[in-house]
Amino acid sequence: MWMAAWRVAPFGDPWRMAARSALVTAAAFGGKPDPDAEERFLPSYRDKPQTLDDIRAELAKIPSFAAQMKES
């Protein structure tokens, strides 16, 4: 039955379906996703590239990494 329905009307892009599923799950647990959050789950999404300083700033937010960064 499902295969016949698929031939008539495909269910959509598997990446988009997975993205929507992740957002529904996040919303069910109280998350407030951004309006463009679904697009960020797709392989075609390209955000601005991170610089080395951006990466260091993100890693500094993690206590164990911050301690290692202070030691070196």
Structure description:
The chain has one domain (2-71). Helix content is 61%, strand content 0%. It is built from 5 helices and no strands. The longest helix has 15 residues, at 14-28. The termini are far apart.
The count of DSSP E runs of length 2 or more, i.e. the number of strands, is 0
Radius of gyration: 19 Å
Helix-strand string: HHHHH
Query: Can you count the helices?
Result: 5
Distance between the termini: 62 Å
As residue ranges, the low-confidence spans are none
Overall mean confidence score, pLDDT: 85
How does the helix and strand content classify structurally?
mainly alpha
Concise description?
With 72 residues, this protein is mostly helical. It is 61% helix and 0% strand.
Characteristic terms for this protein:
mainly alpha, elongated
Describe the SSE topology.
Layout: H1 2-8, H2 14-28, H3 37-40, H4 52-60, H5 63-71
